[in-house]
Amino acid sequence: QVDVAAMARIFRYVDVTDTGFIVAVLSIIFNPLFWNVVARWEHRTRALSRIFGSPRAACYCLGAVILVLNCVRSHCFTEAMKSQPKLEGWDYHWTYYSGLAISAVGTLFVASSFFALGFTGTFLGDYFGILMEAKVTSFPFSVLDNPMYWGSTAIYLGWALM
After folding, report:
1. What pLDDT band is residue 116 in, cutting at 50, 70 and 90?
2. CA gap 151, 147 in Å, rounded
3. Structurally, how many domains does the chain consist of?
4. CB–CB of 103/150 below 8 Å?
5. Cβ neighbour number for residue 84 with a 10 Å cutoff
6. Which end of the chain is more exposed for a tag (fewer CB within 10 A), N or C?
7. What is the crossing angle of helices 93-122 and 147-161, to 10°?
8. Tens-digit pLDDT profile for residues 2-41
9. Cβ proximity of 84 and 13 under 8 Å
């Protein structure tokens, strides 16, 4: 038997019928699906490398598209958060500053991952045949297996709390 009371309490704080919420969820789902499908297609066909004249140029173009899609996703997330109901008892300074601290840690992981991997290492260069000379094991990879994903998650969690 399912206890629907718990779900009913959760859905008091999430308006799943809000257009902004739906668009944010769709953009969150679309982004990784898009870049994984495109990267796997490139790996199989090398079509983007031929179109752009080189694997590096194709990777940079896909990276630029991913960055634009991430900006759109972040905007959609922000707008959805503005229109959602607020949790009672959470509108305090400590909540805001906790969210800020969580976002700062997430930003540290994302930025340090980017600097450790470089642009092509971050934006699917391996699918274009652009490989790193060795596995990156320095910070933040010495702390977490997937610091870019964990960092992004922390940024959005912090943002939600703020």
Report:
1. very high
2. 6
3. 1
4. no
5. 17
6. N
7. 150
8. 677 877 777 777 888 899 999 999 999 999 999 999 999 9
9. yes
Nearest to 117 by CA among 143, 150, 141: 141
Most distant CA atoms of the chain, gap in Å? 59
| Amino acid code (one letter) for 48 | L
Which backbone phi and psi does 135 adopt, to 5 degrees?
-65, 135
Structure tokens that stand for 45 in this block: 């066909």
Highest-scoring range by mean pLDDT, 1-5, 46-50, 91-95: 46-50
Structure tokens at 82: 């503005």
Exposure on the CB side of residue 38, measured as CA atoms within 13 A: 18
Token pair of 44, please? 């199989």
Distance CA 40, CA 127 (A): 7
What tokens appear for 46 in the block?
């090398």
- The mean-pLDDT minimum among 43-52, 80-89, 134-143 falls in 80-89
* Range(s) of the domain holding residue 35: 4-161
Task: Please give the full DSSP string across 59-120, using - where no structure is assigned.
Answer: HHHHHHHHHHHHHHHHHHHHHHHHHSPPPTT--SHHHHHHHHHHHHHHHHHHHHHHHHHHHH
50-67: buried (b, 16+ CB within 10 Å) or exposed (e) per residue? eebeebbebbbebbeebe
